[in-house]
């Protein structure tokens, strides 16, 4: 793996040899009993492996993480009701767009991109409307590396009839609090971030309240209505052709996660990586946007040094064996991102400092 390009992007994650090898388990028809075993094991290991026990049931879909976001929005709002959405980054914005695409009305709580949303603001908006069926929040805004207070929001929403939808795609097995510490009814995740699987499979983790809402929501999409998956998956079946090989890899990735100490050990690894690379960023003179108290363990949004374009810096870093990631939206011109997600040999992180310093000089 030493000579390989190290991916410092927020997904897809670099994978282990073990997970890559699982892709080669062979051909399989999804209408045969072997597939039922595979699906049952994954559906069981997702909530259990992420520390949820039997409080949540999973729904697995073939698609990128956005498929899970869309399923969650479609499945959480009954006809004629609305969603209350936190929007303080690109993924919150995407949630609003998903609702708009399905004609679901939205009350938006917009916030600054470098501040966690204020639970009081959500509380006030919730009190101002009596048609809210779902409160939707992104736990870790991958846009900026900003953490939102989902545990506090979950406690608020639990007192109401609304379901709490959390996009935890970039926080499962990466950030605290983990799902067991959040009163969430529908949690969105994908195989290719903290689980260290491949892109192509996403999932929901649903509480009893979340499942009841999914069954009460109208069928807004043929492919993405979660109710279309729930009944077949409970029988070990899928409504559409799944990405079988990506599921093999997810199966292996979940086994690997459990064998390496589960989410708490992985979160600790992410913390240690963040401490290592953030000390390097400071030494090479790179500044950040989000205050230390609100930052995730994986994404750091860094200001481009004076006179250095993202394109030039990316090319220099890539030449030295690292793939950096552009900033999104209004931040794209002045910032870039480094994300220490997935399988990365520790020494390659140690060597990042010299690569960064040399790349910045060369890009000027
Ligand atoms: C990566 C990510 C997603 C899913 O993105 P896809 O490109 O569709 O896989 C959703 N939400 C958050 C917060 C993410 O970081």
TrEMBL record:
Gene3D superfamilies: Aspartate Aminotransferase, domain 1, Type I PLP-dependent aspartate aminotransferase-like (Major domain). Its EC number is 2.6.1.37. Pfam families: Aminotran_5 (PF00266). Keywords: Aminotransferase, Pyridoxal phosphate, Transferase. The keyword Transferase applies. InterPro entries: Aminotrans_V_dom, PyrdxlP-dep_Trfase, PyrdxlP-dep_Trfase_major, PyrdxlP-dep_Trfase_small, SP_NH2Trfase/AEP_transaminase. It is an enzyme of class 2 (transferase). Its cofactor is pyridoxal 5'-phosphate. One of its GO terms (molecular function) is 2-aminoethylphosphonate-pyruvate transaminase activity. It comes from the Bacteria. Residues 28-216 form the Aminotransferase class V domain. This is 2-aminoethylphosphonate-pyruvate transaminase. It comes from Kibdelosporangium banguiense.
């Amino acid at each position: 793996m030493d000579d390989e390009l190290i991916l410092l992007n927020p997904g897809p994650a670099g994978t282990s040899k073990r997970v890559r090898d699982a892709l080669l388990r062979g051909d399989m028809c999804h209408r045969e009993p072997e597939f039922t075993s595979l699906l049952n094991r994954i559906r069981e290991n997702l909530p259990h492996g992420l520390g949820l026990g039997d409080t949540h049931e999973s729904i697995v879909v073939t698609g990128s993480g956005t498929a899970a976001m869309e399923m969650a929005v479609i499945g959480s709002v009954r006809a004629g009701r609305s969603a209350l959405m936190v929007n303080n980054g690109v993924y919150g914005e995407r949630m609003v767009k998903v609702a708009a695409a399905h004609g679901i009305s939205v009350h938006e709580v917009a916030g600054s991109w470098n501040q966690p949303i204020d639970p009081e603001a959500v509380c006030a908006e919730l009190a101002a409307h009596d048609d809210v069926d779902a409160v939707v929040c992104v736990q870790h805004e991958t846009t900026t590396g900003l953490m939102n207070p989902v545990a506090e929001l979950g406690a608020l929403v639990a007192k109401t009839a609304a379901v709490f939808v959390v996009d935890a795609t970039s926080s499962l097995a990466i950030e605290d609090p983990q799902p067991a510490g959040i009163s969430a009814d529908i949690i969105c995740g994908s195989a290719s971030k903290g689980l260290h699987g491949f892109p192509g499979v996403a999932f929901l983790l649903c509480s009893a309240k979340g499942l009841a809402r999914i069954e009460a929501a109208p069928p807004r999409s043929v492919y993405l209505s979660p109710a279309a998956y729930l009944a077949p998956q409970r029988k070990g079946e899928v409504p559409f052709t799944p990405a079988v090989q990506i599921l093999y890899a997810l199966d292996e990735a979940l086994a690997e996660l459990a064998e390496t100490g589960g989410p708490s050990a992985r979160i600790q690894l992410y913390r240690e990586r963040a401490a290592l690379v953030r000390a390097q960023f400071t030494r090479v003179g790179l500044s950040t946007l989000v205050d230390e108290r609100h930052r995730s363990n994986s994404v750091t949004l860094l200001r481009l040094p004076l006179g250095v374009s993202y394109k030039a810096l990316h090319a220099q870093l890539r030449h030295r064996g690292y793939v950096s990631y552009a900033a999104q939206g209004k931040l794209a011109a002045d910032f870039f991102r480094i994300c220490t997600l997935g399988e990365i040999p520790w020494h390659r992180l140690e060597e990042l400092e010299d690569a960064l310093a040399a790349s910045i000089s060369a890009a000027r």
